[in-house]
Design a protein that fits this description.
The structure holds two protein chains of two kinds.
Chain A lengths: L6 H17 L2 H9 L5 H14 L17 H14 L6 H14 L2 H12 L5 E4 L15 E5 L2 E8 L10 E7 L11 E7 L5 E7 L5 E14 L3 E2 L5 H10 L8 H16 L16 H29 L8 H23 L5 E2 L18 H10 L10 H12 L3
Parallel strand pairs in A: 1-4
Antiparallel strand pairs in A: 2-3, 3-7, 4-5, 5-8, 6-7
Helix pairs in contact in A: 1-4, 4-8, 5-6, 8-9, 8-10, 9-10, 10-11, 10-12
Chain B lengths: L6 H17 L2 H9 L6 H9 L18 H14 L5 H15 L2 H12 L5 E4 L15 E5 L2 E12 L6 E7 L10 E7 L5 E8 L4 E13 L3 E2 L6 H36 L1 E2 L2 E2 L4 H30 L5 H26 L9 H14 L4 H10 L2
Parallel strand pairs in B: 1-4
Antiparallel strand pairs in B: 2-3, 3-7, 4-5, 5-8, 6-7, 9-10
Helix pairs in contact in B: 1-4, 4-7, 5-6, 5-7, 7-8, 7-9, 7-10, 8-9, 9-10, 9-11
The chains are: A alpha+beta, B alpha+beta.
Chain lengths: ~400, ~375
Amino acid sequence: MNIDFSPEELAFQKEVQAFLADKLPADISEKTLKGTHLTKEDYVSWQKILHARGWAGVNWPVEHGGTGWTPTQKHIWAEECAKAGAPDVIPFGLKMVAPIIYTFGTEEQKQRFLPDILATNVWWCQGYSEPNAGSDLASMKTTAVRDGDDYVVNGTKTWTTLGHYADWIFCLVRTGSPEVKNQEAISFLLIDMDHPGITVSPIITLDGHREVNEVHFDNVRVPVANRIGEEGKGWTYAKVLLTHERTGIARVAISRQCMKSLKELAASTPDSITGAGGNLLTNPAFSQKLAEVEIELLALEYTNLRTLAAVSTGSAPGPESSILKIKGSEVAQMIDELYVEVAGYYSMPFVKEQFVDGFDGVAVGPGTAANSAPKYFNNRKVSIYGGSNEIQKNIICKAVLGL
Amino acid sequence: MNFSYSDEQKMLQDSVAKFVQQDYDFDRRRQLVDSETGFSNDHWQLFAELGWLMVPFTEADGGLGGSAVDLMIVMEAFGKGMVVEPFLASAILGGGLIAATGNEAQKEELLGVLMQGRLQLAFAFAEPQSRYNLADVAMTATSQDDSYTLNGQKSVVLNAPAADYLIVAVRTSGAQLDADGISLLLVDSQTAGIDIRGYTTVDGHRAAEVSFTDVKVPASNLLGAEGKALPVIEQMIDRASLALCAEAVGAMEVAYKKTVEYTRTRKQFGVPIARFQALQHRMADMFIEYEQARSILIMAAMQLDANQGIAPKAVSAAKSRVGKAARLIGQEAVQLHGGIGVTDELDVGHLFKRLTTIQYLFGSTDFHTRRFAAAQ
């Protein structure tokens, strides 16, 4: 057993550090570290900087312009990005639809779509969930009926993250007759959001922010040429993606960064109990809770590294990655909650103008306090989206424990 | 042994419940939260007409008795509708302080109009550095001739934007953390030198940062004895904490029942998700938490009424236990609702928000657990 990086990996780490120090814009880093919302322009400009360096396609194969990094290099990249306050890339194009296109798409589709995704010229969003198809995704109802060289799409997709920024949406749609078994009637379509018949309506979340949307399709004509792979195989393609590249879901690097800032914050927060000179880190109850989360995170870090090591030696991450999703979301949510606790009374004010980009007034409360409760509220989604933690446990029961 | 309400208490409970049911649906609440003042003055007048604003006060003060059990009845019903009218901040806390500390003239001047719905109060106690330590008062009031001069900053003052008068905890002597030397002053909110920066709180209430720069207040506005206010502040914050726990119990009941209802109607995998035992047990836990919270709330209310309103250990027990239940029920209500639970459009997310702030207001769960342990 050996946890050390090789000399090459250490050199790579230095290279990444130098790049981030040089190229990561200070305002984007500050927003990311504070946990406030980034604008569309922030994401696009950062992803273009990555593209210019050749580092936008972290998981992509080299032949399509990817980095070709080893799992360890990807791990180093994630760690350094979290430390520096580099935002995660918007996953829908670079991490979700691109692998499906380069794995299952035609040559023409690859040439048409991949370069714009890599360069963030086009913003993608995801159309999977529907109002009545959440955990039971395969029961979705959006239909695509063949009419000449087109499909005619009707239905509603929901929880479409940043869909209001999107140029294109990738969708799971029902192409088979109703008699066909649920999962075998699903196809994978790429749809231009400019098509007539598409409307995007906002869903405001508990932080008062528009992050997700409903996308309605009313007789939207989509060329058959925009279907990925075979008709009726969409579910299979989507599932292949789901078991790929799941290590990021542990959020270890980000949680560690948040934990570090949280401890600094607690150390500078006076404590009601210990009185003069005391701070929250010396409060027994608080330090106990903090330590418990930190220990969980440490265990998670090694679970994540073990998965990473298995991937390095060639085995695909299996249903064990459900552990990463469950524990990763729980740890992140616990940390968010402790931020609220540190903020105390100052977790309560919700001063809307403070969250608007370019606010330069005097903030109510210290540092991250204003964002603590909105972030805690909003991040309850983390144990719900991408297969809720209940679904992840079902996967473990079925696929690992054989129950 | 008898845990049932008297006929008067049942009538009170029914009348508040009827108001919440008929006049306080979620859309109406949303309109109020988004309105300029953040609550309805018409509602406030109705509270006065129905005598609810008299509930916190003794008969000697012109009220209806002021028992903790009565407060519990009103606040629990309010909790079910997430009522944003400042009953807690203005009537229970503000009015309670006047009733506990005011001289005859002050009571005469203020309590009547308060009960008639024509006066709004706010209690300014927390400061940026104080967290939950009520003795931590840095704000000063220096006495000269017939007036005090106030300087300092108060944090997250509930109902301050609407308040006609602020009741301000100030240090008239001693060091910042001394128990002695804290006084209460009644301050007209329009007085020169006061800056009120109002905002909505994450749970839809209104509060403000209030700063005082050389604010002159007549010496006759002192409430109670100079320098001796801490015990009465603690007593009133305990009373407000009890009321808050009652509100939480009301909100928790709605949250767990709505969750049960939702899982019975939400179908996935061809069946209502309530069929899944993994979810059933979690709802059973929510129910158990709710019942335990209700029990400890009743215990604390009875202790307050049996001990002339002074029962710090019982109140801390309630605040701690209710906070723990509020956390579990709030989080689980959202989780079991799934995506819809984190949206602004559904009431469940707002119950979760209020159940979150309640955990920290007037002292966090940990703070009260510790206070319970330290109490005799």
